[in-house]
């Protein structure tokens, strides 16, 4: 470019600096330019990093690329380079002037610059050249890269690509915590969205009971499946393998960890992500009566003894809690109730007795759901007035808000007198909900660990169940978290106190029980292993099959006496049963069993799809046969399949109950066992 | 002075030291920028995954859903394989719910785990598994491909590449009471259903609801997608979609669609069994409830999958005094959507060749025959339908050591009744006797399934089908149930939300808010 060549040093410049060591404008410019370049590089880097954070990589790189290109063009095309040279010219002139006298060796009016200053000046110039070099070097890489990235970003803005596959994580917890955990996880995922894409897909599932969980964690998340012992080539998981578990309490996590077999998963018990406590809930109308019976104290500070007396002894109410064999909240409740001052014998017995007579539920959600269903039915108001429940406070709040984890529950929030009111006491357990990370053997993933770390951090910062403290007379101090020893002691004591089940199971193995496509026998064998947690060492069960083959009723004993230890043998016998023949009359089966059903006076459980009840011989009736059969004290029916209890006989005489399985055979089997315990107590 | 000469001149004017520094700076700048670029390019935090303890050279693991069909015949097939091969197979049943099954399989595959060699993949997940690289291509030569029913095989293709082969298929059928007219068009179906006690469908908030709603729209000539494209906001299609949903809302209001259909959900309940269909709470039931409603005479017509036939035909209450079935089947008027599961080989399997041999075994003619007759799985091979057309055999006949034909074999309680009458004909099923499906019944069922398969359509193939399905269902269901007026459905926003969802992007508001459907803020459902 014509006219753009630099002038010789000193040419056309303002007069020479009379005092180069002074703070002249040129020096100022020199310092300013150096600072500008240094600061510019720093600022550029900072802007780049911060920009990436704030705007996203794409937009930042596009901006950088545009700026870089503009700078390159300006430097090359002249106007800007001329400006830059002009800016640097005074610095150069000073250096040249200072060098000239030194080179000539002549003394002049000016004092030659000191060697130190010369070195400094040279260093400044070298650094300046270095800075510019760095900028050019960076531009060589950054400009094309930024242009490409920016272009890609721009094209993605115009036509967005599919999101990256999210990392799938699975968190399990007790059923009553599922709604709150799902909401919190959903918020976590929304908080991590990048351009609308979720980096994580986190599903929340229901954790199995303590015993089942200990087995699953010790065996790669497989179910405790007795069928595997026969070498059969199939296994069942508890759904997707869990990556983390929100335990109900640290004691529960310790208990599971303690019961796990070696070689399984490793549990890392982390910080608590929620805090709650057990409360005793009852409908508002009844709560007012109880309050009047309690000593005058601050709400929440009544001893559990006082509450128990007012609720049980004075008001005659039942207190229900989830089955301690299956629910940690239930186990904590038993642990608290068994510790009542004078609970040594009869009161402890009473705790277990009442639990069995009230609602039988596997977990808190099921308990409250059944409570709601029962109170909405005929005579529901009386039931509601006679029943209290021990549940975590947040579950009671969920109940009042109509928030259930179970779609089978009646919809709608509770209002007025039907709302549950809570009584709390320092004698009722606190629950601390630790975040437990599950590390599976043979699998290591940094991405998974990072994701779980973020989730744990989120849940710690945003506790489940909100604040909730101070509501409705909840005690501020005093309540304890039950530890490993407390829970284990409660487990053992509870099993000792449970009424014993002594029963003969008669399994209908007619062809219709094995009809495709959903064989009831197959479904039964699927469900049977899951009954084991509710069987105690003192129970006594035997198993027979019956059907009609060649016009004769055939009853086969499949399994002699078993208790908890040998329960797997009974399950194997169920697995081995095959459908054959037609429906045999129940009366035939009862009389056929007579004399070989073991000890006299046992309960009889008939598991059938209902067809057997249509086949009594002329003149025979099930009731009449039962009356003549001394070995049967009570008859129970487990109704499998679509017919439900429709075909079962009227419930009188020795006939006690019919339990329909519906789609959930496992729950029905457990329910049946618990119903039998309730009857055994009486 | 030319532009090219200027940098040289600038360089010349620098002294050697400055040049050295400038050069060093240039190199440093290059290095610095390169490091920065490589760091930025990585994006996600460094991830280290390692998986050990895989099956080994002679072990295969198959991941699948729970098998609760009669006799669990799928398991028997695996046992048969293990008896006859040195490579031993373990069948891992992940979960009862398909979404949980998908989460486990995709979760392990996403991390590169070698836990599974073969996946049983729902046809709706094919695009996700294939495009994410979780499964390998499964090339077929023409001879192999011709064995399968065409559109059933196509459900294993993604972007023109075969990634899986069908194991079991599914297609909806119309079940009707005997004595009522059998509709051949949707208009006839509405008319007859209104006159005869209603039509039971599944409109719950689950994948089955999506399928029913897609069928409703397709049957009315509307389209939500066209290949990769979302076309619900295109003029003709959009209005047809609106009209179809509006029509179904009216049918539901008038009781032509059975009571409760609008809230049928995945979790069927004990209350269905305890209280009966009409007394049940409004939230429960799926195919199971439709079945119950149909069986209890609450409705005259039912849309359901072939499994329903087995359930009904093995229930003695479904036979009249003369031993004839009290119901029949027909092709579903309008469109039907294809279901089923494919078998695919994991990208991280150490034994792909052996896995393929296993898949060949499971999709062989004999295996498919037995799966159909013994467990009720609709077959995927043309040869099975051909054979059932000519020589139907029951499970007992197939399993008998000297398996003969339907007309000669079949004694004993599990041998079936090969010579019994067809579905609408007499079938001697006296009380107390077994009700195993007869050869003619299976023949009739196979013919109906095959007929329906040939005209069935597939669901859209998107990598994020589940997200697409959820967004689609939220709006379509809202219109049908009356939560959103048909005229309020903002087709443009709906389409945008679907476009985002199919790519894995969440709507700005939560799906429940229905903001993406155009629902006015703060307005409650009707």
Based on Cα principal axes, name the global outline of chain A. Answer: elongated
Question: How many alpha or pi helices of chain A?
Answer: 21
Q: What would you give as the CATH superfamily of the largest domain in chain B?
A: Periplasmic binding protein-like II
Q: Kindly state the mean pLDDT of chain B as a whole number?
A: 80
Strand order of the largest sheet of chain B: 3-2-4-14-7
The computed structural class of chain B is: alpha/beta
The largest interface is: A-B, 109 and 117 residues
Pfam families (chain B): SBP_bac_8
Organism (chain B): Streptosporangium minutum
Protein name (chain B): ABC transporter substrate-binding protein
Family (chain B): Belongs to the bacterial solute-binding protein 1 family.
Fold and architecture overview:
The complex is a heterodimer of chains A (682) and B (526). Chain A has 682 residues and is an alpha/beta fold. In chain A, strands 15-14-13-16-17-18 form a six-stranded mixed β-sheet, sandwiched between helices. A five-stranded mixed β-sheet of chain A has the order 2-1-4-11-5, with helices on both faces. The longest helix of chain A has 44 residues. Chain B is of the alpha/beta class. Chain B has two domains: 155 residues, D-Maltodextrin-Binding Protein, domain 2 (3-Layer(aba) Sandwich); 225 residues, D-Maltodextrin-Binding Protein, domain 2, CATH 3.40.190.10. In chain B, 42% of the residues lie in helices and 11% in strands. In chain B, α10 crosses α19. Chain B is flat and about 115 Å long. Chains A and B meet through α2, α4, β1, β2 and β3 of A and α1, α2, β1, α3 and β3 of B. β12 of chain A pairs antiparallel with β1 of chain B, so a sheet runs across the interface.
